[in-house]
């Protein structure tokens, strides 16, 4: 690389950045080359109009800033890679386990029933959970009575209103609460089995859990692990 022809009108930092663009990654100009360019600029400056010391100091300061940003970017990439590896390890350990997620659907083994939770936004005189099968038909209603605001457990025994055991499958749970005389739907948290894990699209993609009956959900949406 020749450094003898440095324009007196361009700073060493400018020359460094221009030359850097002409080199592929792995063969980039580094600190030594920049300093050589700076010395070459000093040797080739116009003796009738030399640059002030402050100008050279400013160039060095600018170079330090550029180098610091590059180092910071490298550190952030390493940090992100480490975070994703840790997240992948954490997620892979959840395969085969049951997680509690905010949803209104669940795959139910009716012989074992289902235990879920509902989030009651305010006190209610009448709280109940309607259970629907895959066709959308109402099969049972779980009455919980009057409850205070907060998280509450509920259980469905897997039978219909007449006490007949239902077939295993996907069921929908609609939590309702009577508040100020109006029936209002409440959020539910239901169990789901984790079948596998995958990484979301993009370099910063979040780890996804592939759960039975729900498809892919983000790891951050998991409320609890059983």
UniProtKB/TrEMBL annotation:
Residues 86-222 form the FlgD Tudor-like domain. Keywords: Bacterial flagellum biogenesis, Cell projection, Cilium, Flagellum. InterPro entries: FlgD, FlgD/Vpr_Ig-like, FLgD_Tudor. It comes from the Bacteria. Residues 109-179 form the FlgD/Vpr Ig-like domain. Pfam families: FlgD, FlgD_ig, FLgD_tudor. One of its GO terms (biological process) is bacterial-type flagellum organization. The keyword Protein transport does not apply. The keyword Transmembrane does not apply. Required for flagellar hook formation. May act as a scaffolding protein. Belongs to the FlgD family. This is Basal-body rod modification protein FlgD.
């Amino acid at each position: 690389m020749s450094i003898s022809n440095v324009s007196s009108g361009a700073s060493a930092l400018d020359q460094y950045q221009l030359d850097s663009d002409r080199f592929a990654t792995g063969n980039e100009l580094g600190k030594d080359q920049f300093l050589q360019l700076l010395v070459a600029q000093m040797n080739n400056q116009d003796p009738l109009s030399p640059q002030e010391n402050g100008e050279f100091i400013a160039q060095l300061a600018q170079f330090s800033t550029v180098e610091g940003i590059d180092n910071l970017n490298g550190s952030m990439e390493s940090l992100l890679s480490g975070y994703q590896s840790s997240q992948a390890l954490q997620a892979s350990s959840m395969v085969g386990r049951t997680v509690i997620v905010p949803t209104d659907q669940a795959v139910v083994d009716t012989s074992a029933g289902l235990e879920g939770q509902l989030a009651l936004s305010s006190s209610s005189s009448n709280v109940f959970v309607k259970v629907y099968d895959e066709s959308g038909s109402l099969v049972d209603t779980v009455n919980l009575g009057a409850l205070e605001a907060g998280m509450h457990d509920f259980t469905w025994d897997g039978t219909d209103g007449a006490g007949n055991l239902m077939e295993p499958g996907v069921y929908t749970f609609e939590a309702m609460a009577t508040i100020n005389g109006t029936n209002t739907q409440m959020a539910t948290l239901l169990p789901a089995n984790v079948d596998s894990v995958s990484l979301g699209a993009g370099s910063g993609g979040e780890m996804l859990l592939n759960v039975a009956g729900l498809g892919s959900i983000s790891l951050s949406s998991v409320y609890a692990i059983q």
